[in-house]
Amino acid sequence: MIQLYIGNKNYSSWSMRPWVLMKQAGIAFEEVMVPFDTMEADANFKRTILALNPAGTVPVLKDGEIVVYDTLAICEYLAEAHPDKALWPADRTLRARARSACAEMHAGFGALRTHCGMNIEADLRAQGQLILRDQPRVRADLDRIVALWSGLLDASGGPMLFGAFGIADAYYAPVCSRIRTYGLPVPAAISAYIDRVFALPGVKAWIDAALAEKTFVLFDEPYRLQR
Question: CA–CA distance from 123 to each of 116, 118, 126, 181, 211 (Å)?
Answer without folding.
Answer: 12, 11, 8, 5, 12
